[in-house]
């Protein structure tokens, strides 16, 4: 207990903005690199590396979080498998479909990409927000984890690089890329502020989550409005049709809905912490 208090004090004593001193230069360097060497994002290797790393972090964090609960060993294992197996299958199906061109506009008369975004949310949000077992897990794991994890959103800088290269229209790439980068950059400051255990830190994390979800809402809406298909209302000289190709399509087909689910879990966790704290007082 004492070590936890000391650890929290050490974390909270560091100004949250200091994390930006290294995340901003790293993000700028990455943006410049993929702008100068288009083969990096086009090869799909960077997307694969990031997703495998994040997938591993989620699997590890889930297991460590379950170890902190009062669940029996068999229950922990069953819960871990009940979450990771569908999550891994979902990632595999999305990846396979993307490689095979299933999300291209010409591949089907049905809008498969919007379905790939919305269907996991329709299924996943109620399950994750209503599950008692998930609630036990959220109560046991640090609230900072789900916030800091989304630092990977800085890789959304690729949309800005594509815009600068004239590959994507500014109407979509600038708000989508800027929103992603800001969400990723402020993930660590929000997590550090949250670690202080103050009401202000909790509010900062809530606002960060809302901003991250709003970023996706803007990107999805604009994407539907300007991409050729049944929802298109705006015709531009430069199309976003290339977003349906591998590896770019993995972002709307998997990263977007999975990140929204992480935001939903974080908000549920923060709500539960606030309610528990209010009950104690």
Structure description:
This protein has 13 helices and no strands. It is mainly alpha-helical. It is globular.
Layout of helices and strands:
Elements: H1 2-13, H2 20-36, H3 39-43, H4 45-67, H5 73-99, H6 112-130, H7 132-140, H8 144-148, H9 157-164, H10 170-185, H11 187-195, H12 199-226, H13 250-280
Relevant terms:
281 residues; mainly alpha; disordered N terminus
Label the overall shape. Answer: globular
Low-confidence stretches: 1-13
Structural class: mainly alpha
Largest sheet: none
Number of strands: 0
SSE run: HHHHHHHHHHHHH
Give me the number of helical elements.
Answer: 13
Average of per-residue pLDDT values: 89
Question: Radius of gyration, rounded?
Answer: 20 Å
Beta-strand level of the residues, as a percent range?
A: under 5%
Distance between the termini: 20 Å
Question: Helix content range of the residues, please?
Answer: over 70%
């Amino acid at each position: 207990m004492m070590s936890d208090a000391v650890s929290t004090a050490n974390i909270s004593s560091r100004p949250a903005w200091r994390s930006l001193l290294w995340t901003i230069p790293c993000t700028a360097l990455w943006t410049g690199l993929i702008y100068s060497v288009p083969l990096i994002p086009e090869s799909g290797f960077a997307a694969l590396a990031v997703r495998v790393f994040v997938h591993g972090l989620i699997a590890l964090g889930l297991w460590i979080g379950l170890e902190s609960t009062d669940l029996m060993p068999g229950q922990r294992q069953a819960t871990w498998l009940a979450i990771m197996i569908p999550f891994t299958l979902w990632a595999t199906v999305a990846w396979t479909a993307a490689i095979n061109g299933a999300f291209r506009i010409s591949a089907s008369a049905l809008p498969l990409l919007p379905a790939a975004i919305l269907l996991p949310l329709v299924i996943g949000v109620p399950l994750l927000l209503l599950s008692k077992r998930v609630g036990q897990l959220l109560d046991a794991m640090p609230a900072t984890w789900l916030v800091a994890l989304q630092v990977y959103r800085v890789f959304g800088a690729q949309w800005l690089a594509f815009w600068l290269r004239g590959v994507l229209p500014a109407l979509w790439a600038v708000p989508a890329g800027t929103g992603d980068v800001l969400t990723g950059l402020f993930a660590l400051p929000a997590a550090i502020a949250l670690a202080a255990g103050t009401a202000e830190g909790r509010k900062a994390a809530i606002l960060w989550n809302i901003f991250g979800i709003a970023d996706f809402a803007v990107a999805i809406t604009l994407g539907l409005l300007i991409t050729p298909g049944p929802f298109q209302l705006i015709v531009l000289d430069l199309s976003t049709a290339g977003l349906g190709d591998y590896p770019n399509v993995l972002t709307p087909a998997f990263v977007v809905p999975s990140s929204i689910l992480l935001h939903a879990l974080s908000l549920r966790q923060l709500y539960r912490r606030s309610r528990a704290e209010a009950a104690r007082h």
